[in-house]
Design brief:
- With about 325 residues, the protein is α+β, with helices and mostly antiparallel strands.
- It contains 13 helices and 7 strands.
- Among the domains are: about 45 residues, no CATH class; about 160 residues, no CATH class.
- Helix 2 runs antiparallel to helix 3, helix 9 crosses helix 10 and helix 10 runs antiparallel to helix 11.
């Protein structure tokens, strides 16, 4: 049975999305990762969504994305976004863009049909992921002389409470993927994750992480990074996990010494599956409200209750029952 996707209508929502290659094949070299990185930002801009952070691995990728509520979009902005899909247009594509612009100026049914088609792809997490995966597949198959499906299945998504410890924990989990995989010792050294891109100076990546850490640390990138995110992510990555690489004790201690203290350190011991299979992640009230809304829309009578993470999780100051999920996850984990 296909799992229903939880969506919030009428307000901003944050999702952790993940998708993996067919059969889990390690298909992505550095060129492919760079193209996927570029397309994540480009398609997000087109769809009107915001990227908080991401991680591109050899056979899967994660993205933490904020989806704003639906709102009117001016024709000039629609055209700007549409041009993002064709950064190097062919003659045919240039002619098509010119024809679209002329239609909008003239008005009429053709302009309205085009406008409706574009708006249907915006402010929607499913449309964002579908378009991202489709356009990357076209590029990958063309450049690698292959055909057929590239992705194993529909993407997975978890609705995330967009504030406080919850979103910080999710963001750190995503940025620590290359550390757990043994690809780098420090996530700042991995160029295909949001944290590495932010440290390298990319303003959009920095803006996403500033929003993640919240108002208490959002005065500037330096404050957000030095006072919160760097200590948090290094503390999280230093915790041992069976079968996974981690940040060394020496590097963690060096981080602590450099800062003098470790404010808001979030210790990530929870098993990976809660971040990919939990459907909704947040406080008891947040999860309960989403369950009620989902059951009302789906016409279901039996109401599930929010489920607490297991006591093996140490959230660095947050009690175990402060963070809940909608559904007990499957045993098989990804990432």
């Amino acid at each position: 049975m296909r799992r229903a996707r939880i969506k919030i209508h009428g307000e901003d929502a944050v999702y952790h999305c993940i998708s993996r290659t067919v059969n889990g094949e390690r298909l992505f070299d550095e060129d492919a990762k760079e193209m996927l990185r570029q397309q994540i930002w480009r398609i997000a801009d087109y769809c009107g969504v915001s990227i908080y952070t991401y991680a591109i691995m050899d056979n899967h990728f994660h993205v933490l994305v904020r989806v704003p509520k639906k709102a009117p979009v001016a024709d000039a902005e629609l055209l700007r976004r549409y041009r993002l899909l064709y950064p190097k247009p062919t003659r045919y594509q240039s002619a098509t863009l010119a024809a679209v612009e002329a239609q909008l100026k003239a008005g009429g049914p053709d302009a309205e049909a085009w406008r409706k088609q574009q708006l249907a792809l915006m402010n929607d997490v499913s449309a964002f992921m579908k378009l991202l995966k489709l356009r990357f597949t076209i590029w990958f198959n063309k450049t690698h002389s292959r055909y057929g499906t590239l992705w194993a299945e529909r993407f997975k998504s978890v609705l995330v409470q967009p504030t406080g410890n919850v979103i910080r924990t999710m963001s750190a989990y995503i940025d620590l993927n290359p550390v757990r995989a043994g690809m780098v010792e420090d996530p700042k050294d991995y160029r295909f994750c949001g944290y590495g891109e932010a440290v390298a100076g990319r303003n959009k990546a920095r803006d996403g992480l500033i929003e993640v850490v919240g108002e208490d640390y959002a005065r500037s990138w330096k404050c957000a990074h030095d006072d919160c995110y760097r200590p948090m992510i290094m503390g999280s990555g230093a915790m041992p996990r069976a079968g996974k690489a981690r940040i060394s004790d020496e590097l963690f201690e060096e981080t602590v010494r450099a800062k003098g203290k470790l404010p808001l350190t979030t210790i990530l011991r929870c098993r990976v599956r809660y971040f990919t299979e939990g459907v909704v992640l947040g406080s008891r009230d947040f999860v309960a409200n989403q369950i009620t809304s989902y059951h009302r829309k789906a016409g279901l009578l039996r109401k599930k209750q929010p489920q607490a993470l297991p006591p093996v999780c140490d959230w660095g100051g947050a009690a175990a029952d402060d963070i809940m999920v909608m559904r007990a996850p499957r045993r098989r984990a990804l990432g």
